[in-house]
Design brief:
By secondary structure, this protein is α+β, with helices and mostly antiparallel strands. Helices cover 32% and strands 22% of the residues. The longest helix is centred in the C-terminal third of the chain and has 40 residues, at 332-371. 24% of the residues are buried.
């Protein structure tokens, strides 16, 4: 039921009487003013004093660069930071939040964080420090410079993480090959790159802050290098390709090939980063003779071994930006193959000469036998015996050479490389 707001004379009379009783019977109210009472130890407030002002927590950012952030505040305060970095469409991104930590006795807090290659531009940060009775926040920005890739010095991260923006069908049976291939790349990619570029290139495999990331994937598909409109890029190596599962060494060769795409090959006589015309490069042999960047990449099977090229050709080194370079150094297998091939070629030439001489001797012997079917008269008979003796001696030498030739040729064919 609503309360009435109408004036009541009786209520006014009661109120007036109550006020009169308070005035005549109550104690007089104390005078207004600060509390000047002191506790027994004399530590109470002084008359007329005001509460102390809270001093803001000092924060001064002393270093802000991509990969590092440092500030100075009060000793012992707890600080944390957040980053605002525009990561690329491909590749990896730096962390968004940096872990909290306490300032050292000088009030300094420093972070070093993963700084993978991202598009250049302006990034931002927010730092917040919290003390016992105060907190403070600061924001700021820093520049991310352009970080071009050069074959003479760049960093690579090899990972089995799933690559972003890629669609594929994972195959659990290929996981052991994926893991072994990633481990092999991590261990040997630096030396393989140096050898592929004839000692002119330098690559470092790192755990963080890479220039480019190689994602090794347990799937069957076409490995590729991809670059976005924002200049971000990454490489995906599928451990099984169009011709089936590879071995770990050849997955390293695939990684070299995809790294080559960063700089090669563009312009006339190219398509999708490959040469359209195969061209033998001086000093390169067998599977390497055309270099690493032909279309399609030519691999050769040696028994159970699939061998793919892992050396850049002269024109590919030019595409990578090298203006002068030494002749390629053949690997140990090629050196052995060249030595065996030289012996085989020498023996083959001698065998052919022996065969020609044997054929001539046999023809002379048959001619005499045909001319004298009822007996060979003197002095023709002595000539006949001499021819037969020469044939027998030469055939023995021929047989030894042929056996030696066969043995060397078998060794040559067994090598997992081709020195042609």
């Amino acid at each position: 039921m609503p309360v009435s707001s109408r004036f009541s004379p009786r209520s006014a009379l009661v109120s007036a009487v109550a006020a009169l009783l308070v005035t005549t019977c109550g104690s007089p109210p104390p005078a207004a003013g600060p509390d000047t009472s002191q506790p027994p130890d004399g530590s109470g407030p002084v008359a007329g004093a005001t509460a102390p002002a809270i001093t803001p927590l000092p924060i001064r950012v002393i270093d802000a660069n991509y990969g590092t952030l440092s500030l100075r505040s009060a000793p012992g305060v707890r600080c944390q930071a957040n980053l605002r970095v525009a990561a690329g469409f491909y590749g990896e991104a730096p962390p968004e939040a940096l872990p909290g930590q306490n300032a050292d006795p000088n009030g300094v807090v420093s972070w070093t964080y993963s700084a993978p290659r991202v598009p250049s531009g302006t990034a931002g940060y927010t730092v917040r420090c919290q003390g016992d009775s105060a907190s403070e926040t600061r924001t700021g920005s820093f520049s991310i410079p352009t970080r071009p890739l050069a074959p003479t010095a760049f960093t690579v991260r090899v990972t089995t993480d799933l690559p972003p923006h890629e669609q594929f069908n994972p195959d659990p049976s290929l996981v052991p090959l994926r893991d072994a291939s990633a481990a092999k790349m991590t261990a040997t990619l630096a030396s393989e790159w140096r050898t592929a570029t004839r000692g002119l290139g330098s690559l470092q495999v790192v755990d963080t802050s890479a220039d480019i990331t190689i994602f090794v994937v347990a799937s069957r598909d076409t490995s590729h290098w991809v670059k976005g409109s924002d200049e971000s890029e990454h490489i995906v190596v599928f451990v099984s390709g169009e011709i089936g599962a590879r071995n770990v060494e050849n997955n390293v060769a695939v990684a070299l090939h995809e790294l080559g795409h960063i700089w090669c090959c563009r312009g006339p006589d190219t398509s999708d980063g490959h040469w359209l015309t195969k061209q033998v490069s001086p000093g390169l042999y067998g599977v390497d003779k055309y270099g690493l960047m032909t279309d399609p990449v030519t691999c050769v099977t040696f028994g159970a071994v699939l061998s793919c090229p892992n050396r850049f050709s002269d024109r590919e080194l030019v595409a990578l930006g090298f203006t002068s370079f030494p002749a390629p150094v053949p690997d140990a297998c090629i050196v052995q193959s060249l030595a065996l091939r030289s012996q085989v070629n020498t023996l083959e030439a001698e065998i052919k000469r022996n065969e020609a001489t044997l054929a001539n001797l046999a023809a002379q012997i048959r001619a005499i036998e045909t001319q004298y079917p009822n007996g060979i008269p003197q002095p023709t008979y002595n000539t006949y015996l001499s021819l037969r003796s020469q044939y027998t001696t030469l055939y023995a030498e021929y047989s030894q050479r042929f056996d030696r030739y066969s043995a060397l040729f078998t060794q040559l064919r067994a090598l997992p490389c081709d020195s042609t």
